[in-house]
Structures are given as structure tokens and as C-alpha cells.
Amino acid sequence: MVETKIEEGEEPKKGNKKRSLIFLIAALCVLAAGGGAWKHFYHSVSSAKTKTLVDEQKKVIVIPAVMSNLDSSDGYTHYVRVSARLLVPERINTADVEAYMPQIQDLFQMYLHSTRLQELSGEGIYRLRESMLQQIQNTLAPIPVEDLFFVEVIVQ
User: Fold this and answer.
1) Are the C-beta atoms of residues 148 and 73 closer than 8 Å to each other?
2) Mean pLDDT, 10 residues at a time, over the chain (156 residues)?
3) What is the pTM of this model?
4) Across-strand partners of 71?
């Protein structure tokens, strides 16, 4: 072990104290940044979810089942049956949405009639949902439609 002797006129080296002070400040900065990140990503998300659930309730509106034949290039007739639900805010009057039900059913008929069987396989249901949700939102423009749920999609 090496011992350092300090003579009477000398002061101890301050380099070690400076270095430990820098490490201490850096550690405090890392802890503060970690705490701030945790609060931002976890605390604010949970309070935002709770706030939206408390602020506004949702209501589900049934779209009657739509049956249509698909566009077929192989000479065979293929049918599809779709039942869906709309998610709207609770404050929306159900009668206002149901007044547009013939137009919504017509949107489904027109879209499905121009769709081929191959287009409904794989991610086709997702594309169908996104396209129909966009068209329904455009049709019911002043009424906010938040989501579209498929209850059944049967292809024959």
C-alpha cells in the first residue's frame, strides 16, 4: 500500500474531490432524467386514459346484416354477409344515426359488390374496415363515428 505524506506547507490534492463531485452531479442528473421520463410515459398515460373514460361514455349502434355478391371473374357466384357495429359518443342521439342507415347499408353493398374474393383474404378485412369507416364518417359528417366493429364476416 502506498502512503502519501503531506508536508506542512502543502494542501491535499483537489483533483479527487473534483472528480467525485462531477460523478455525483452526473448521477443526480441521470436519476432526475429517469424520474421525469417515468412520470411522462407512465403517469400521464394512465391519467389520460382515466380522464377519457370518465369524461365521455361510448354507445354502440347496430348496423343490420348486409348480404352481397362479390365480383367474380371465375364464373362462380360468391356471397358475403357482414354484420357490424358503430361506436359513437353517448351524447349522440341513436335516431340521428339510424336515419342514415339506408345510406350506410348502400355503402356496404357498393363496396362489397365491387370487391373480389381474393381481396377479402388476409389483410383484406382490415382494408374493408378502414375503407368503410372512412366512408361512414364522411356520410355522417357532423356526427362523430369513432370506430367500426365487424361482428361477423361470412364468405361463401
Assistant:
1) no
2) 55 69 83 76 59 71 91 82 92 90 92 86 88 92 90 88
3) 0.61
4) 116
Q: How far apart are CA 38 and CA 134, in angstroms?
A: 36
Helix (H, G, I), strand (E, B) or coil at 47: helix
- Distance between CA 149 and CA 87 in Å, rounded? 8
For residues 79 and 87, the answer to whether their CB atoms sit within 8 Å is no
Scan for cell 483537489, then name that residue.
14
Helices and strands in the chain: count of H runs, count of E runs: 5, 3
Burial class for 145, CB neighbours closer than 10 Å (0-12, 13-18, 19+): buried
Question: What CA–CA distances, in Å, run from 149 to 57, 70, 131?
Answer: 17, 21, 13
CA distance 87 to 85: 7
Integer Rg of the chain from CA: 32
Strands (E), the chain: 58-69, 79-89, 147-155
Distance spanning both ends of the chain, measured CA to CA: 87
